[in-house]
Design goal:
heterodimer, A: 462 residues, mainly alpha, 17 helices, 73% helix, globular, disordered C terminus, B: 161 residues, 5 helices, 37% helix, 0% strand
Chain lengths: 462, 161
């Protein structure tokens, strides 16, 4: 029977897993709709008038992004943090009740955004589109998660705090002020205007990546790595390096009307970000040394490793965009679309896939996975995303070069995009089918009554 | 609390606070006054701007001309992308629509482009059926907007000089 709140250990974590997989389908479908509209605008034109406003590109685009990063990815983060905490502190979660309240309130927020954004109710700022009541829910949820994290740590029986826990503590603590300031929640009509409105927005945008998706995400990866490879982390010190140096600045708006000194400051900080990212990569690959063969057998580990490689590429791109000369070519082009999907899908979501496979299995105690479906999930998603991202990067470089000739009419540069939009649609559809394989696999695990036959440490499916 | 817990909490909060002071509060101390092209919006223009926001036009159109392309970038003719955007251009705006992607052209100075951008009739036609006036464009048609809404939206677009 489905209860509002369960006190069974791990029950909230499992609910977060299921809800995440459920919400993942939504941005997948929305993404395919958006990609179809760009490739074949006639499809959007031919929609009946009754649904046209709600499926309009400009309304679906923020719904696609918000549900992807908050409905899917953040929920796996919630699930994994609640899953990992008791295991690394050797103590029960501070409050399973709070965790369930978290689940209800977070899903209320996600559902609210999926309803309000297609209705055109938006604050109109990138990644900060959610309307004011949903902003409040966001802050409340992170506070509740922080209470659980800090409460569990305070009661821990394991004296040593593993690097992942440090990351979770830091991420939740700074996310509250970052969200509150970045969304100006004390004045929803906009406490800053003009240039400063944008400066505040990009303070938030970048720190949402840094403080939440990266700081917490790196914590998750550094938990998964020894767990799936069966080998202790190469260096805890290198792990902490990553924790302390992830703050970079607003390099998203180079050559913008913002003051030059602010741009130069953020460029310096972005270059400095190469240090912690290199530390993470060294740590990751040194830990994996002599264990690479496991990635061939274990699909979850393969997702983790592939995600880490893509994460390294994300950071290389991120630093290179921070130079004005390169930014001038790729900014405003489809390159940026490729970059954001590299970060959110090919890196963080790949880690999230590995985490979900691991958590559902350990929390339900059932091994009902189809190894074949897992392979389909991996290969369709990986190859699909490669086609998607490479087509967008090539398209972006062409666009950037075309614009800087100053002699090609803009409309012509749009028409040039057609084949790349087609390739993106193909790649996106492949990744979409991969995601369906994933969801079906999780659904089967949830419904199976079969017990775990041989719980192995370096886990591989059936 | 153990010393390293204190370092963690204190260090994170101090670095965050410094970030807020340096990258938000200091830049806000010297707000630019309105530039010549920034006029307060009329009621109709303001309604149009709200429609621009509601329909998410800023996801495909930037309103931001960067220095290297200023006066040189080509929309219909060489240089008609317009002059570099300066802080004062956005004096009356919240949110601003600087944007991140140009699936469509930059609109910072769209109403200064003779014959097309400055032509209210062209915009109204284009909103209803973009492909009839710009073959090859990927812009969706906004034929679901009412005549009044299209009129307000057009009035707003014409403020982008």
């Amino acid at each position: 029977m489905f209860r509002l709140v369960s006190l069974e250990p791990g029950s909230a974590s499992l609910r977060f897993c299921y809800a995440a997989v459920f919400w993942l389908i939504v941005p997948g479908v929305l993404g395919l709709i958006l990609a179809t509209f760009l490739y074949l605008p006639a499809v959007a034109d031919s929609l009946p008038l009754a649904v046209k406003p709600y499926l309009s590109f400009g309304r679906l685009r923020p719904a696609h992004v918000n549900v992807a990063i908050f409905g899917w990815l953040s929920q796996v983060y919630f699930a994994a943090i609640l899953f990992i905490l008791p295991r690394l502190t050797r103590t029960p979660l501070y409050s399973e009740r709070i965790a369930h309240a978290n689940w209800w309130l977070w899903n209320l927020m996600v559902a609210g955004s999926l309803v309000s954004l297609p209705m055109g109710l938006t604050q109109g700022r990138e990644y900060a589109e959610m309307i004011w009541p949903l902003d409040l829910l966001f802050v409340l949820n992170i506070v509740l998660l922080a209470v659980n994290i800090w409460g569990t740590v305070a009661r821990r029986r394991e004296p040593k705090i593993y690097v992942s826990i440090w990351n979770f503590m830091a991420a939740t603590m700074v996310m509250v002020p970052i969200y509150a300031v970045g969304n100006k929640i004390w004045d929803p009509s906009g406490a800053y205007r003009g240039m400063n409105d944008n400066i505040v927005n990009y303070f938030y945008v970048h720190n949402l990546f840094n403080a939440w998706f990266t700081t917490a995400g790196v914590g998750l990866a550094l938990y998964l790595l020894p767990k799936l490879s069966g080998k202790a982390l190469y260096s805890h010190r290198l792990g902490l390096w990553g924790l302390w140096s992830v703050w970079t600045g607003q390099h998203h708006q180079l050559y913008s009307p913002a003051p030059d000194w602010l741009e130069y400051l953020t460029i310096v900080f972005s270059i400095l970000a190469a240090v912690p990212t290199t530390a993470f990569m060294v740590n990751f690959f040194m830990t994996m040394r002599s264990r690479w063969h496991l990635a061939a057998e274990d699909v979850a580990l393969r997702f983790l490793v592939t995600g880490a490689i893509f994460w390294g590429l994300t950071c290389v791109q991120g630093v290179s965009h921070s130079f004005r000369t390169f930014s001038m070519v790729v900014h405003f082009t489809n390159w940026v679309v490729g970059h954001s999907h590299l970060a959110f899908v090919a890196s963080y979501s790949f880690w999230a896939f590995a985490l979900t496979y691991l958590m559902v299995r350990e929390l339900t105690g059932r091994a009902a996975y189809s190894r074949r479906l897992m392979e389909w999930h991996y290969w369709l998603t990986t190859l699909g995303m490669l086609i998607f991202m490479i087509s967008m990067w090539v398209a972006g470089l062409i666009q950037g070069q075309n614009w800087s000739t100053y002699s090609i009419p803009f409309l012509q540069t749009v028409i040039t995009m057609k084949p790349y939009f087609g390739a993106r649609l193909l790649g996106g559809a492949m990744a979409g089918i991969g995601i369906l394989c994933f969801a079906e696999n999780v659904r089967r695990a949830a419904r199976s009554r079969q017990p775990v036959t041989a719980p192995t440490h370096a886990w591989s499916g059936q | 609390m153990k010393p390293n817990l204190v370092y963690l909490t204190g260090g994170s909060l101090i670095s965050l606070l410094l970030g807020i002071i340096v990258t938000i509060i200091i830049p806000a101390q010297d707000p630019a006054g309105p530039s010549a092209s920034a006029q307060p919006y009329s009621e109709e223009e303001s309604r149009g701007r709200d429609i621009y926001l509601r329909e998410g036009c800023h996801y495909c159109h930037t309103q931001q001309v960067r220095e290297p392309e200023a006066g040189r970038g080509m929309v219909h003719q060489r240089g008609d992308i317009g002059p570099e955007s300066v802080p004062g251009d956005f004096y009356h705006q919240s949110p601003v629509f600087w944007g991140t992607l140009r699936q469509g052209m930059d609109l910072a100075h769209v109403a200064s482009r003779p014959g097309i951008g400055d032509n209210a009739g062209w915009h109204e036609l284009h909103f209803r059926n973009p492909r009839a006036v710009s073959p090859g464009t990927v812009m969706p048609s906004y034929d679901y907007l009412s005549a009044e809404e299209i009129q307000s939206l057009t009035a707003y677009i014409l403020t982008l000089r």
